[in-house]
Amino acid sequence: MHEREGMRNFYKDKVVVVTGSSSGIGREIVEQLANYGAKIVLCARNQEAMQEHVRRMNLADENYLILALDFSQAIDFNAVREKILSKFNHIDILINNAGIAQKSLVQETNEEVERRIMEVNYFANINFTKALLPHFIDRKKGQIVGISSILGEIGLPFVGPYCASKHALNGYYNSMRYDLEKLGVEVAIVSPGFIKTEITKKSLTGSGEIHDKDSVAQEKGMSAKDCAQGILKNISKKKRQSYVGGLETLMPKFAFLFPRLFHFLMRKLHKI
Ligand SMILES: NC(=O)c1ccc[n+]([C@@H]2O[C@H](COP(=O)([O-])OP(=O)(O)OC[C@H]3O[C@@H](n4cnc5c(N)ncnc54)[C@H](OP(=O)(O)O)[C@@H]3O)[C@@H](O)[C@H]2O)c1
To answer: Which of 21, 23, 80, 220 to mutate to test the pocket of ligand 1 (most atoms within 8 A of CB)?
Structure first.
């Protein structure tokens, strides 16, 4: 079967919740899901960007729901679940994609920034997941997908809290998979490499300002469109752990096999 047709068969009429859907990878995931005929729940802070996107795609009202949510704040995710169910009656897939990055030496990073990264990247992610679990368990099916990062398996200079949040996710998801598999709920992690989005530009500095500089690695990285395609393909193939990106996705294996050499090379590369 042609790949596109296979993807369409998999996603058509499925209710898919996509967090972080106002820009970058999440926005592209939404675009492709719409082409496959899925019903989409878009979540992020920037409501205008999401509205403009569904308008541009000509999505019919019955095929989408926009939820303006700020994951750095306390959210009643049970109420969010009920809102989704009152529109679509059920949920098939949760793609936990929302995330923020940080760019600073740990010795120059204040606690507020550390906590904000964990709130958005880790706590909101698992709290949303847990609120959907009773529904998935009742239906004896559901897919939970965490968009992690290759930085969920290695450390690099200037990104300590971000790496920590992704390591935490990986640990939680790899554990949660055991807890849920007998109940029919599937858990997957997709780890992108360096993807061309504005995440680094929007990174927080150690004092909570906007970093406002792109990363060279990301500028040369895979497009968000190709990344979204890879993510959706891996979800449809029910891959439990996968990578999307270029050669940099080999970094975790390289670091595991040659830790000293990896450390030396990363120091050279980052000129520290
Ligand atoms: N780009 C890469 O190289 C790369 C590599 C590995 C992993 N990833 C992961 O991929 C995911 C998507 O990142 P991206 O590169 O596409 O970056 P992006 O373009 O900056 O998108 C991040 C998304 O998260 C949302 N978000 C940020 N703060 C939020 C908050 N407080 N509440 C709710 N939503 C919030 C943003 O929406 P609002 O601002 O509208 O709230 C936006 O839609 C992230 O989890 C990131 O860690 C990216």
So the answer is: 23
pLDDT digits (tens, 9 = 90+) for 120-172: 999 999 999 999 999 999 999 999 999 999 999 999 999 999 999 999 999 99
What global pTM score does this model have? Answer: 0.98
Site to probe by mutation for ligand 1, drawn from 199, 223, 225, 244 as the one with most ligand atoms within 8 Å of Cβ, is 199
Question: Ligand 1 within 6 A of 159 CB?
Answer: no
- Does the active-site annotation cover 173? no
- Number of structural domains found in the chain: 1
- The domain that holds 122 is classified in CATH as 3.40.50.720
Give the residue numbers spanning the domain of 125.
Answer: 3-269
| Rounded CA separation 109/122 (Å) | 18
Kindly report, residue by residue over 102-113, the tens digit of the pLDDT.
999 999 999 999
Q: Which of 11, 36, 162, 243 is catalytic?
A: 162
Atom nearest to 199 CA in ligand 1:
20
Positive or negative, the CA dihedral 183, 134, 32, 38 is positive
